[in-house]
Fold this protein.
Amino acid sequence: MADPLLFNPHTYDPAHFDPETRRLLRATVDWFEARGKRRIIEDYRTRAWLGDFLAFAAEEGLFATFLTPASAAGETEGDKRWDTARIAALNEILGFYGLDYWYAWQVTILGLGPVWQSDNAAARARAAELLGQGEVFAFGLSEKTHGADIYSTDMLLEPDGEGGFRATGSKYYIGNGNAAGLVSVFGRRTDVEGPDGYVFFAADSRHPDYHLVKNVVDSSKFVSEFRLEGYPVSAEDVLHTGRAAFDAALNTVNVGKFNLCTASIGICEHAMYEAVTHAHNRILYGRPVTAFPHVRRELTDAYVRLVGMKAFSDRAVDYFRTAGPDDRRYLLFNPMTKMKVTTEGEKVIDLMWDVIAAKGFEKDNYFAEAAVEIRGLPKLEGTVHVNLALILKFMRNHLLDPVAYEPVPTRLDAADDDFLFRQGPARGLGSVRFHDWRPTFDAYGHLANVTRFREQADALCDFVLKAAPDEEQSRDLDLLLAVGQLFALVVHGQLVLEQAALTGLDEDVLDELFAVLVRDFSAYAVELHGKDSANEQQQLWALGAVRRPVVDEARSARVWQRVEALSGAYEMNP
Ligand SMILES: Cc1cc2nc3c(=O)[nH]c(=O)nc-3n(C[C@H](O)[C@H](O)[C@H](O)COP(=O)(O)OP(=O)(O)OC[C@H]3O[C@@H](n4cnc5c(N)ncnc54)[C@H](O)[C@@H]3O)c2cc1C
């Protein structure tokens, strides 16, 4: 029987969506299964361009349906809307079959971000038309010499005296830069100093002044370097100017980075079927490898971590879709999906690879691909550091200063998430307020490890009140990031429990997951204890926050049975 908590293509039927969404998701799964495992892996190994997949997507109108907001759709195109729930579902499927497919779709989302946020009706109409023709898009923000420092852009726009510009400069690490019908490019005017000079404009990768230099990575992902040489930017191509252009960049990344969590979930799911099936059927010294207690522990930890990743991400969708000018809680949960869920994904793969060892290198399996690709997700759309630093801005308000909000239900409805394209200024994060996290934990007070973890969360509140970093320490990002990891764990636990309550998640699995989170909290506390600038009070606090999870052999055995049942539950069509 299929595990109800994991995606399984054999039984997948997203009946909770409308008929067209359901059809498109299922058709995508069927396309991959028909293509078969050998071909998929061969394409990955030979770095083949994704033309066949994109042709399928174009024929089905997949990207056009999922990525055209209702406001840009025609009157008869009722299935088109920007619906984060179904976008998340497609991320998971694409991650499951190969991150390269996901990447072409992901950078299309990023490329569309500045367009859908723009008031430029001509550019919006052009983008909708290109999507309808099955074109992909690209997001030209990064540059070779500037990394995360996007303020320092060297893409220069010189006024042409006729209301437009000539753009000259390079972009680096730009996905789909080889093929995009529209590339959203970030630059600055040569005649205006400071933030008022920023410009986001639409370029065409087929224009003669657009020069594709190379693919900077060795992959089916086309992560391009391109150069514009006096590229003509007319008023019709300008998407945003001044501070709004900078906000459009950050708000686009806000929308885009949400996709990394579900992509990493898909990777882990496929890898898990392979890993458990292999380990369970491999006989050493007359017994299956899964008879070893340490193997059971590792696979069980991997499984519950994965269930936690899914629960957190599903719940984050609800906050994303419910967001508005008066509810910006998504600005915390969003970088959490990015840095926490994707780093959990790395741990899941590591745990399984320790078990399957040599098998994880074999070229005929998905696992070897998973082991490589899972590493990318924490590094894209801002590094773990950048996202953790962002999360810290919310810590005090979240932990100590809750306010009342209307309850947020599960959001699988067919709504158009138009707020994501009018998020407004990216500033003011310190003023975002949150609902109280405590009642969610109280509701699961009967689970031993939730209670244990709650002690640690309460201890973190004490830390913030009594031992918070002083002014000098608050410039020491090395120390702060260790605190950020502790805070991220509390937020992770909170949304996992909220989702558990909404879906009736198995309580054995939940308790086993919280045993892992208790260990994680203890480990990060010890890390904080060892930080160079941690003062004596902070060191004492850190060791005092270490807890041992509550062991329950019968519970662990029941969870193990669920893991064991994954053996043979899915194998991709050869
Ligand atoms: C496969 C791939 C695809 C990509 N696709 C695109 C794309 O389509 N479009 C696009 O525009 N970009 C793309 N990128 C670029 C990507 O977003 C950048 O890699 C990312 O922004 C980080 O820049 P960097 O890797 O150069 O690191 P750097 O910015 O050089 O960072 C170096 C170190 O400093 C730390 N750091 C930097 N700033 C801060 C801060 N404020 N707080 C704390 N720590 C900080 C970082 O964490 C890191 O450890 C892609 C990159 C890759 C590898």
